[in-house]
Amino acid sequence: MKQPSTIRYATLALALSVGLLALAPSAFAAAPQSKYGTKSTQSAQSGDDAATQASAEDLSDLQADARAPRVEGNIAELQNLMQAGSLIELRETRNGSYGAKLFFLAQDMLFYVALSQEDRLWRVVKTQDQVRAESIYAQFARKSSDLADGEIRRMQLAAQKSLLDRVIAKSADRANRLTADLALAQQQDSQVSERQQQLQAESAALQTDKLEAERKLRALQMQVDQLQRQAEAGLAPVSVMPSR
């Protein structure tokens, strides 16, 4: 009774051994293929990822966005209406380079309120409510006034500085002229002083010469008088006969 069981166990063990021997070569042969196959799989996956990224980039292409319909806001809409001459200008406030305007589109009963800087639209509000349009216009007008305060102050300071620069330039020019006149006057004073000294010296010399000439003249007159007396000393007096 025990022999058949032993035979069955032996047969089962033999079958398992044969099966393991048959599977072993295929397992060893598949191992290196699996190693290189992993690299191939990774390369294929990398290629798939690159293709996926390229597909994503293609989907976000700018040309595709350019072909999409362009959405224009209130600013572009108002600009188009202004160019077409479809608007009625109801109010306008100007403060420096800032301004506020209220437009009315009669055909659609729409109001456009615009805030601009240097004639470029900055903010635009569109509404069918006239009260709201007037309120927004008043806000924009006050904002343009507040924004222009610094600009107007700068303009005033620039004008004051320009005026001061002109006054300084004129004062400097006058100072230069006066300096030149003073230098010329000093030069002339020096020349006049030298001339006066020369004249005084000449006058003193002439005075000396004059005194010497007067002395000589007096001496000559005295000599002439003496000679005259000597010449007349030996002459008889001449009688003058009365005329009949």
TrEMBL record:
Ranges where the record places region Disordered: 35-58
Signal sequence segment: 1-29
Work out whether the entry's keyword set contains RNA-binding.
no
Protein name in the entry:
Putative exported lipoprotein
Q: Output compositional bias ranges, type Polar residues.
A: 35-46
Query: Sorted alphabetically, which keywords does the UniProt record give?
Result: Coiled coil, Lipoprotein, Signal
Q: Tell me which species this is from.
A: Caballeronia insecticola
Asked if the Swiss-Prot or TrEMBL record annotates the protein with the keyword Disulfide bond, the reply is no
